[in-house]
Amino acid sequence: MEASEMNTSADDGSPGQAGYRRSARSPRGEARRRELLDRVTDDLAVNGLVDFSLRRAARAAGTTHKVLLYHFDGVDDLLKQAVLKLRDRRTVNAMAAATAGPPDRTLAARVRAMWPMLSGDDPGLRLLDQAIGLAMYDPGRYGWLGREASRLYLPSLVSLCPVSWSEQRKFEVAEMVLGTLRGFLVEWRTSRDAEGIAAGFEALVRALEREEAAASA
């Protein structure tokens, strides 16, 4: 299998086409790409971003870096795909917790339910919070880590808002929740101030309760 995967010529002869797009042209190629990505993602979740490289990813995937370059458009593309996969897992778990229970639960109750899914000590969660720091450290190269997080989480938070709210109000409150929770996550990873973060979270919940009360008045 690897001999064929190392053939990096595109079927249509077009140069510069991303490798994983070439491999996705067949069910077999796409299945192989997903398998490799799963292995790299699992390694990234356990070992973090430090010293991440194409060769480290190849060792984790049990293949060669040339094979990875057939399926992915370089180390940054591979990192992006793995981070997004971890974020998908986190979002699914958080939204499942937020939407469980009666449909008339308040937004404050939904945010309270999803918080443990975002703030646990699972290695994959720690890595996603490290990614925020990486985006701040080198925004030119890694700024997408923050932008993609917003694109992923913001629509989910908007969907949790009361249906009676205007779209503008939903967007404003969702932005407030996203920015506040993101700040809490960075604070937790850097200071481990559980008491202070818990107090801040309760203040956020009260702010959401007031927002909902004002909207229904």
UniProtKB/TrEMBL annotation:
<feature type="region of interest" description="Disordered">
    <location>
        <begin position="1"/>
        <end position="33"/>
    </location>
</feature>
<keyword id="KW-0238">DNA-binding</keyword>
<feature type="domain" description="HTH tetR-type">
    <location>
        <begin position="30"/>
        <end position="90"/>
    </location>
</feature>
<feature type="compositionally biased region" description="Polar residues">
    <location>
        <begin position="1"/>
        <end position="11"/>
    </location>
</feature>
<dbReference type="InterPro" id="IPR009057">
    <property type="entry name" value="Homeodomain-like_sf"/>
</dbReference>
<dbReference type="InterPro" id="IPR001647">
    <property type="entry name" value="HTH_TetR"/>
</dbReference>
<protein>
    <submittedName>
        <fullName>TetR/AcrR family transcriptional regulator</fullName>
    </submittedName>
</protein>
<feature type="DNA-binding region" description="H-T-H motif">
    <location>
        <begin position="53"/>
        <end position="72"/>
    </location>
</feature>
